[in-house]
Design a protein that fits this description.
The complex is a heterodimer of chains A (about 110) and B (about 120). By secondary structure, chain A is mostly beta strands. The N and C termini of chain A lie far apart (about 40 Å). With about 120 residues, chain B is mainly β. Chain B is about 0% helix and about 50% strand. Chain B is globular. The chains are: A mainly beta (about 110), B mainly beta (about 120). At the A-B interface, strand 4 of A face strand 4, strand 5, strand 9 and strand 10 of B.
């Protein structure tokens, strides 16, 4: 399983765009990149997933360069409620097989007023 | 639609006692996972059920832990006898299938276990 490296913590202010970068130098050809969000006293929650280039949904964007050795989660105009831990996960999606998730340390994002 | 639920939310027991955690996955989800985070550590995978069968139990720490999923619906995780190092938060997650939404797993709120 590919190892991921993220900043331990980040601070931002309300209304700003936040970019969290994750390094995954030994990502494999079959690996997808997935980001989860976790609030205190809750389980992790899926945010976004991608394989290459750019993916956008209603809450975030995910930028993946051509070499796929890193990825950047972009949160537009954060609010106080976006304060949470964000996890970058890398793993393969095998045909017909739902697999375990491998969590790293995550990034504690604190949004300040 | 109800999400993944776990019971109890908190449990405080003494070393040597037995505790049983329960997880109810989202209805229709064949895949059920158990994870845990012990103090100061990362969330770690314990095991994976597909319906009532154990697909992968490589993360189970030792034979004091027993997971079951009779009938392929809810699952229980029993710790017997509990040790101090078992303290932590136990998460359950479920997913619909192997493909589709790329194996998106839906997590419950977790059970916080404290062993004294």
């Amino acid at each position: 399983l590919a190892k991921t490296t993220q900043p331990i913590s980040m601070d931002s202010y309300e209304g700003q765009e936040v970019n969290i970068t994750c390094s995954h130098n030994n990502i494999a050809t079959n690996d997808y990149i997935t980001w989860y969000q976790q609030f205190p006293s809750q389980g992790p929650r899926f945010i976004i997933q991608g394989y290459k280039t750019k993916v956008t949904n209603e809450v975030a964007s995910l930028f993946i360069p051509a070499d796929r050795k890193s990825s950047t989660l972009s949160l537009p105009r954060v609010s106080l409620s976006d304060t949470a831990v964000y996890y970058c996960l890398v793993g393969a999606i095998s045909s017909g097989s739902a697999r375990q998730l491998t969590f790293g340390s995550g990034t504690q994002l604190t949004v300040l007023p | 639609e109800a999400g993944v639920t776990q019971f109890p939310s908190h449990s405080v027991i003494e070393k040597g006692q037995t505790v049983t955690l329960r997880c109810d996955p989202i209805s229709g989800h064949d895949n059920l996972y158990w994870y845990r985070r012990v103090m100061g550590k990362e969330i770690k995978f314990l095991l994976h059920f597909v319906k009532e069968s154990k697909q992968d139990e490589s993360g189970m720490p030792n034979n004091r832990f027993l997971a079951e999923r009779t009938g392929g619906t809810y699952s229980t995780l029993k710790v017997q006898p509990a040790e101090l190092e078992d303290s932590g938060v136990y998460f359950c997650a479920s997913s619909h299938g192997g493909l589709g939404r790329y194996n998106e797993q839906f997590f419950g709120p977790g059970t916080r276990l404290t062993v004294l």
